[in-house]
């Protein structure tokens, strides 16, 4: 439980911190997360979003520190994924199931599917405005950012945007606002974008263009995870604009796994070759790094080399895991190369190249295969592969 945080006049953050969660459907979140929910009080009391079901009592307790939860007049559900909708049954039961529940059309369908109940759904869409007491709320559907039901709620008088998952971060701590935590929050926001929203970057670009046209003059952004952007909301909007453009950076990433250290030696040689061309590089062993950390680095890299030994005519299981995850998030504008050792069949490089093709990454070299253990000349070929990759990246980035 935490003391509700007042974020504006008669507006409170009443959500919960999940200090213990580490796995968010495959994304490693070492600092836990928050499920933010917001209570607007006044002539009418409105709850915007809820929290994961196992935190329902904590949410009610937080609300109770401000008003009797039974006095909530309406609920707005910006997003129906269970980390935000899971407490809706308990909240609706408490406040009265006839109270209006505002959501998108898809939101109403999802809530029916999730809870097998008909609430008093008030379906809203982009451009709709609702006045509740002395407060006005308008809505902007943000379909597939990141679910079909997702929407933003905007309070035009207060110039506050409730942005659901967008602009969030998986961070649980003792800071609640951007000005309290400063730039420390940006790696969390970047990892969140890479692992949740990168796939939808064209939609993010379109949304940012729509929001710019609307001239909203946003004073504060309240996402459903992490800190609230009250001092400088344009900082996260600018970052989203940059990340969603997917411009390649002048840095490379070497991802690998190894059976008997042969592919490790190859990976180190590829890395040295990249460095020799004055291109920044990071070497990531898939046994040492979580897929979501690798994904975050992929987002910023212009070039990616992947190394895998051949195992049972295929690539290594952990490499397959990481590539499946990366592929789903659709990073674009990468150049790529493959390498790996093998004993007798040697399919890994071919399979990796096929993965690159499917991701529409530009293959700059057919790759390097080495039988069993690389000798000096094999390692030179790997070094040269790194040089080729780095040169291709520099050429791509040259004006
Ligand atoms: Fe934080 Fe899409 O849920």
Report on the architecture of this protein:
There is one protein chain. The chain has a 7-stranded mixed beta sheet with strand order 1-2-7-8-9-10-11. Helices cover 37% and strands 24% of the residues. With 399 residues, the protein is α/β, with parallel strands linked by helices. The protein folds into 2 domains: 5-245, Ribonuclease Z/Hydroxyacylglutathione hydrolase-like (Metallo-beta-lactamase, Chain A, 4-Layer Sandwich), CATH 3.60.15; 253-397, Rossmann fold (3-Layer(aba) Sandwich), CATH 3.40.50.
Helix coverage percent: 25-40%
User: Any idea how many domains?
Assistant: 2
| SS content category | alpha/beta
Side-by-side strand order of the widest sheet? 1-2-7-8-9-10-11
- Overall geometry comes to elongated
Task: Outline the low-pLDDT stretches.
Answer: none
The CATH homologous superfamily of the largest domain corresponds to: Ribonuclease Z/Hydroxyacylglutathione hydrolase-like
How much is the radius of gyration in Å? 24 Å
Number of helices: 13
CATH T-level topology of the largest domain: Metallo-beta-lactamase, Chain A
Tell me about the biggest sheet? 7 strands, mixed
Alpha-carbon distance between the two ends: 54 Å
Provide the list of bound ligands, each named once.
MU-OXO-diiron
Using the 3D structure, state the CATH architecture of the largest domain.
4-Layer Sandwich
Average of pLDDT: 97
Number of strands: 22
User: How large is the share of residues in beta strands?
Assistant: 15-25%
Specify the CATH class of the largest domain: Alpha Beta
